[in-house]
Amino acid sequence: DSTENVDIQSSDAVEEPTSGTFFFREQVEPKTRQDSDQKMPERKERKPKPERIDPMSILDEDGDPIFLTLDQAEKSYREAAQTLETEQSDVVERWEDLGVTSPQLLSNLEAMSCEKPLSVQVKTGIPALEGRDVLVGTYTGSGKTLSFLVPIAERLLQSEEQNTSLRAIIVAPGRELASQIVSVARELLDGTSLSVMLAIGGTTFSRNLEQLRKRKPNIVVGTPGRLAELIIGSPGEKRGRLKISTIESLVLDEFDALLEYKPHREPTSAIIQRLKQQSGNSLQSILCSA
Fold this sequence. Notes:
By secondary structure, this protein is α/β, with parallel strands linked by helices. It is 40% helix and 11% strand.
């Protein structure tokens, strides 16, 4: 597995998600009359509610790990860090040096005041554009979003296939972050043949599905619960409503929150497994975190 690792020191904390996603509807047992007649003790100690679950490897149907374990990721990072300085030039002044050739993308980047790639974009750009798996660790405000959006957009524009199918899924742990990613993506893709759409909870599922089918976006950005409903299907359904056979790239933004907190872990794991089953080793995985 060719995993490129980018590490920049971070001090940001991940906001704790709230429960209530599609895969986590807690069942509350009704109180019996006997229960209601019982006197409650005067003081009852509250047990702290577990916020996280122990990290585990995500396995496929054969029991093989889909992603690296923490030990494997650390080893891979240390090996890559030793050669990172020699593999890349000291200074990259232009997006063209990273392989971005679309005139419209370059024009949009200039309009967004991003004339030159930032450090994380330089280190991520080439491997991501080559379709390799990438692990990005950087701080908020360093240009993380464009570090995966630009290579994905350039790859899709370079593709000989017509840009009328869904090609990339971006998963974010919160609605606000997902909306921010869509806002940046729309600026970047303005005037190109590519489009992006938002799929988050708190909106009507049927309307969301209707818009996706009508507009046929190339990139969908969403939260785990809603994306799981679209890709996996609701309980009792054999399959989801969203066509995923053409998906090439999967991005997990704030992947530590997506895979560590229980409300996000189950739907995110289900999405990963379904896309891996569909695309196999050809699926590009980009994991980002602050």
